[in-house]
Amino acid sequence: MENHPNVQAVRAALAGADARTAAGTAPEMVLFDEGVHTAAAAAAALGVEVGQIANSLIFEADGAPLLVLTSGAHRVDTRKVAAGLGVARLGRATPEFVRAHTGQAIGGVAPLGHPKPVRTLVDTALAQYDEVWAAGGVPQAVFPITYAELLRVTNGVPTEVA
């Protein structure tokens, strides 16, 4: 997985944005032998709280992709998010839609490293943590980053999504 094109794209995007961790260092990818397909599995593997996991969820918002980075501790309220954005229809995207817009498969979608930028909302619940963990482009890869950096490198909008 170290040399997987998606992992390399995420690494390049992080480096290009000069992303930083809570320690002020560049984020380093953590690779697992098995995929961590849920926030609970990722948190257990990392020894952190489930709320520190930034789930990358792609939605279809009136036909356009929307990336919601939400705390692993709760679910996205799609009605609330749709109303806040002023979209008529907001629903979970199909695996094909996700891959077409991110180049990545569900379960490993990273917050960046996509073929082109995706409109992004970042859950304000993640702000309570010094460090959050996000997927690295495949289900076996994650990386640490701060909430402020996550907002910056994704051009994300802080939003209450639950």
Your description of this structure?
The protein is globular. Strands 1, 2, 3, 4, 5, 6, 7 and 8 form an eight-stranded mixed β-sheet that branches. The protein has one domain: Alpha-Beta Complex (YbaK protein). 27% of the residues lie in helices and 24% in strands. The chain has helices spanning 5-16, 39-46, 78-85, 95-102, 147-154; strands at residues 30-31, 53-61, 64-71, 90-92, 119-123, 132-135, 141-145, 157-159. It is an alpha/beta fold and 162 residues long. The mean pLDDT is 95. β6 (132-135) and β7 form a beta hairpin. The longest helix is centred in the first third of the chain and has 12 residues, at 5-16. It has five helices and eight strands, in the order αβαββαβαβββαβ.
Total number of β-strand segments? Answer: 8
Q: Taking all residues together, what is the mean pLDDT?
A: 95
- Work out the count of structural domains: 1
Shape, principal axes of CA atoms: globular
* Highest CATH level, the class: Alpha Beta
Would you identify the CATH H-level superfamily?
YbaK/aminoacyl-tRNA synthetase-associated domain
Beta content comes to 15-25%
Going by helix content, strand content and strand pairing, the class is alpha/beta
- CA distance, first residue to last residue: 33 Å
What is the alpha-carbon Rg in Å? 14 Å
N-to-C SSE string, H for helix and E for strand: HEHEEHEHEEEHE
What's the tally of helices? Answer: 5
Helix content: 25-40%
Unreliable stretches: none
Tell me about the largest β-sheet: 8 strands, mixed
From the coordinates shown, what is the CATH architecture?
Alpha-Beta Complex
CATH topology descriptor = YbaK protein
